[in-house]
Write a structure and sequence with these properties.
alpha+beta, Aminopeptidase, Immunoglobulin-like, 3 domains, eight-stranded mixed beta sheet, seven-stranded mixed beta sheet, 40% helix
């Protein structure tokens, strides 16, 4: 506050000796008349008023700066605290889901929920802290988005927690009420699971409402005004939202889906395709046997297995043949209608399963029309045998164990005339495996082991499921059990697919893939994929399936397919390709060729090609995404991946983390992958 001349003269005359409260007693003030004319005095008063306004304005600006800096600290602290909570939650997720599914317990899910609730608590705290300065933070675009980010993240976290809350009764039932018991159960428990999921339905509905609130927060954000870092965070947030929305939708529809799939309302029949993955085909393996089963109230009430012949299963009438479109690059078929049954040209299992189901139903075969198709290969049967221990096949006086399974199977073929006895033995063996599996209901330990290994087989594409109900297929896609081939549009993509042309050697051949990705300035990408086959005598000589007298020639002849992104252009090839051709598809570009690998040799095949439109610009950053898909039926294989960033570019993030990084005129990331299931790579970088 300003003071005039009179106020500056607090005392006049001599000081008084009187004291009030230990201070000199002020004298009576006199009114100052001031000197100079009135107009000068008025001017001085106005100037003093303006000085006051200026001072107040400066104080307000300082306050804004202080509060703004404070708000920045709040926002930064909020972000760091939330990130710390997410890191902690990710550690719980990694430790939980990197273990075999048979070892998961209710305690693991309790830890998961505790981690999620820690994130919620952190979000609640930082949102309260930021609320104090929210009006000021909203003056800055990134700060305003941070506030919306926190609001949306809070709703997403609470939605996830609410879904876990709704799942508690089901999880408790699955483990028999014991915290340390593994989360598996009998298929016959399906009816009770449907009831318990119904109990959790209010929680799933509440989670949906929170997801809607999160979506409204996210929709308010305008990407154009955001920094690159904030754009990336928002992209991640949208990804989390989409995942949770899919899970919530699955939980809402799960009771209805289970009622149909498990035959709780009426009997449901399934076609079973038994694939020999020793003779690998794009959608899993050669079909030598097949079966069907009928399920009612969650239990299999009837089933059968038999060999595949020219008349079994019964084919559709020849008039249906024009409905089957076989690609011109695939093997020539004397009777195209059989292409629907053994439609091995596509690695997309839903497409192959739909054709097989069409063939079976239109041939008026037993239990048709079937409501779905289940494919199971040799590796999956090995897993089931591992849990059962052994299976006796009385018709052939054989005892089959995990150790002698393949030897017995191929010995039957070698010691009998023709292919028919081999297929008959397989059908009898698979019937007995199914029968013994059903009998494990009274043995929780075996039942738990079988279901756990079945989950493993589903994750590794040794078992795949297709349903006539689109809603069921959507759920199977979300779970990763459908064997669906994903799109190669808008990202880099690779799927190497083998089609064995006449022997049973695939378990003895080691396939190794190397992919070199060169990202140039501006986002153009050039790839080089190298496919190495090692067909060693030291391995093959011990394999009962490798026998030229009974199981086809020793040379591995293969119709190789290499699926790459849409728009890719072949620039170079190295290796003994036969009839190498390029094919333009809707979702992928495809290279096909016959390749041969003689016994006890190794062969190397290399293709170089451009990969357009696979780098996305996100503000000041660039994002490169790569999806590598595993071929159905393929045993695990090694993938060496090397990604070279543009010269001068700086790595921002890598998911997953690279095994090694180098700086040789540019930054190079090295990944060593074991392909057991589909793998996604995402690299974010910034060009200078």
């Amino acid at each position: 506050m300003t003071t005039n001349v009179t106020e500056e003269k607090k005392y006049e005359g001599k000081p008084s000796s009187g004291r009030e409260g230990g201070r000199p007693k002020p004298l009576k003030r006199r009114r100052s008349r001031g000197s100079g004319p009135k107009w000068l005095r008025r001017l001085m008063r106005r100037m003093n008023a303006r000085t006051l306004a200026l001072r107040l304005a400066l104080l307000f600006v300082v306050a804004l700066i202080v509060v703004g800096v404070g708000g920045l600290v709040v926002a930064t602290d909020a972000t760091s605290r939330v990130e710390a909570s997410f890191v902690s939650l990710n550690r719980v997720l990694d430790s939980t889901f990197n273990r075999p599914r048979t070892e998961l317990t209710l305690e693991d899910f309790s830890k998961l929920r505790s981690g999620l609730q820690e994130v919620i608590s952190t979000l609640s705290g930082v949102r309260g802290q930021a609320r104090l300065v929210r009006p000021l933070l909203e003056l800055n675009d990134d700060m305003a988005v941070t506030l919306v980010f926190l609001d949306a993240a809070d709703q997403l976290a609470r939605a996830g927690d609410t879904m876990l809350e709704g799942l508690q009764p089901t999880l408790f039932f699955l483990v028999g009420g014991e915290d340390a018991s593994a989360v598996t159960t009998q298929i016959s428990s399906g009816e009770r699971i449907v009831e318990l999921l119904g109990i959790g339905r209010p929680s799933f509905i509440a989670a949906g409402e929170r997801l809607e609130q999160a979506a409204r927060h996210i929709q308010t954000i305008q990407n154009a005004s955001l920094s690159a870092e904030m754009l990336l965070q928002m992209e991640q947030l949208r990804g989390f939202y989409e995942q949770l929305a899919e899970i919530q939708e699955l939980l809402m529809t799960a009771p209805d889906l289970l009622q149909v799939a498990l035959g709780l309302n009426q009997e449901q029949s399934y076609l079973v395709l038994s694939q020999n993955s020793d003779e690998l085909r794009p959608s899993g393996g050669y079909l030598s046997t097949y079966g069907w089963f009928v399920i009612r109230n969650g239990r299999v009430i009837d089933y059968s297995y038999s060999e595949v012949t020219a008349t079994n299963p019964n084919p559709p009438n020849d008039s249906f043949a024009d409905q089957i479109q076989v690609p011109d690059w695939w093997l020539p078929l004397t009777q195209p209608i059989y292409g629907a049954w053994d439609s091995g040209w596509s690695p997309d299992f839903p497409s192959a399963a739909e054709r097989a189901m069409w063939f079976y139903n239109n041939g008026n075969n037993p239990q048709s029309p079937v409501g779905g198709v289940i494919a199971i290969d040799i590796v999956a049967f090995e897993y089931i045998l591992e849990a059962l221990g052994q299976v006796s096949v009385p018709e052939f006086s054989r005892v089959v164990t995990p150790e002698n399974f393949r030897e017995v199977v191929y010995d039957i073929r070698a010691t009998n005339q023709g292919d028919r006895p081999h297929k008959q033995f397989l059908a009898a063996l698979y019937r007995q495996i199914f029968n013994d599996w059903q009998a494990t209901a009274a043995d929780p330990q075996k039942s738990e082991a079988i279901l756990g290994l079945l989950l493993r087989a589903l994750q590794e594409k040794h078992i795949m499921i297709y349903g006539a109900d689109p809603a069921l297929n959507q759920a199977l896609d979300l779970l990763g059990w459908s064997g669906r081939q994903e799109s190669g549009i808008g990202r880099d993509y690779l799927m190497v697919v083998d089609a064995n042309l006449g022997n049973k050697s695939n378990s003895s051949i080691r396939r190794q893939i190397t992919l070199d990705v060169d990202i140039a300035a501006g986002g153009s990408v050039s790839n080089r994929v190298t496919i190495n086959y090692d067909y060693s005598d030291s391995v093959a000589s011990l394999d009962p399936a490798v026998n030229p007298q009974f199981h086809g020639p020793l040379t591995y002849n293969n119709l190789m397919q290499v699926y790459v992104p849409v728009g890719a252009q072949l620039t170079e090839q190295i290796g003994s390709f036969i009839n190498l051709a390029a094919h333009i598809g809707v979702n992928h570009h495809l290279f096909t060729s016959i390749v041969s690998v003689p016994y006890n040799t190794s062969e190397r095949f290399q293709l170089a090609y451009t990969a357009p439109n696979v780098v996305e610009t996100v503000g000041e950053y660039q994002r490169y995404s790569l999806l590598i898909q595993k071929q159905p039926g393929m045993r695990e294989e090694g993938i060496n991946l090397q990604i070279s960033l543009p010269p001068g570019a700086t790595l921002v993030s890598s998911t997953p983390a690279a095994a090694a990084t180098y700086n040789i005129n540019r930054q190079i990331l090295e990944f060593r992958l074991i392909l057991k299931s589909d793998t996604q790579i995402e690299i974010v970088y910034q060009e200078t």
